[in-house]
Amino acid sequence: MLCENCHKRESMVKFTQVIGSEKKTVNLCKGCAEKQGLGNPLGDVSKVFGKIIVAILNEHLISKTAHVSMPVGEQETCCVCGLSWSEFEKTGRLGCPQCYATYEKNLKTLLRRIHGNNQHIGKSSQKNLKLSKESAAELKKKLKQAIKKEDYEAAAELRDRIRELQREVETS
C-alpha cells in the first residue's frame, strides 16, 4: 500500500486517530510519518536506558567512594592529565594510564568495596574455590564419623586432606 500523504513510497506506519466517535486511519511512509512527528516511539529507548544505567552506576560508585576521598586541601592530582580524585568521583572515569598509579591505593580500596576483592580470580577459579569448600565440608563430616568410630588412622588422613584443601583455598 502506498503512502496516503506523498503517494510515492510504500507505507510503513499505520496511524489511527479517534476524535469523539469518529475513527480515522492513515497509512504513511517512514519519511512522512517522521515529518508529522510520528517517529518510532521505541527508537531511543536503548539510549535512554543506557543513560539511566550509567547514572545509576555513577551514583553507586560515588556513594561507595564517599569515605575514600581525601580532604580537599590535600587533593592529589595526576601529574600527566591533572585529574583529581574528586573529579574521578564525579565522573567515574580516570583521565589517563598514569591515574592508575597515582590513585592506586584509593582504587584498590574502592574495588575491594565494590567487588569484595581487588584482584580478579576468574570464574573457573571461583568454581574451583566453591568446590574445594564443599569437598572440605564433606571431608569434615567424614572426619567426625571416623573419630566417632575411633578410626584414628583414617581421621589423620582426612585431617591432612582438609588442611591441603584449606591451603589451596587460601592461595587461590
Short recap of the structure:
It contains 7 helices and 2 strands; from the N terminus they run E-E-H-H-H-H-H-H-H.
Describe the protein in words.
This protein is mainly α. It folds into 3 domains: 1-38, no CATH class; 57-115, no CATH class; 122-171. It is built from 7 helices and 2 strands, in the order ββααααααα. The chain has helices spanning 30-35, 45-65, 85-91, 97-102, 104-115, 122-148, 152-171; strands at 13-19, 22-28. The protein has a two-stranded antiparallel sheet with strand order 1-2. A hairpin with a 2-residue loop joins strand 1 (13-19) and strand 2 (22-28). The protein is elongated and about 95 Å long. The termini are far apart. Mean pLDDT is 75; it is low at 65-73.
Q: How helix-rich are the residues, as a percent range?
A: 55-70%
Q: How far is the N terminus from the C terminus?
A: 66 Å
Number of strands: 2
Strand order across the largest sheet = 1-2
Structural class: mainly alpha
Q: Tell the overall outline.
A: elongated
Layout of SSEs?
Elements: E1 13-19, E2 22-28, H1 30-35, H2 45-65, H3 85-91, H4 97-102, H5 104-115, H6 122-148, H7 152-171
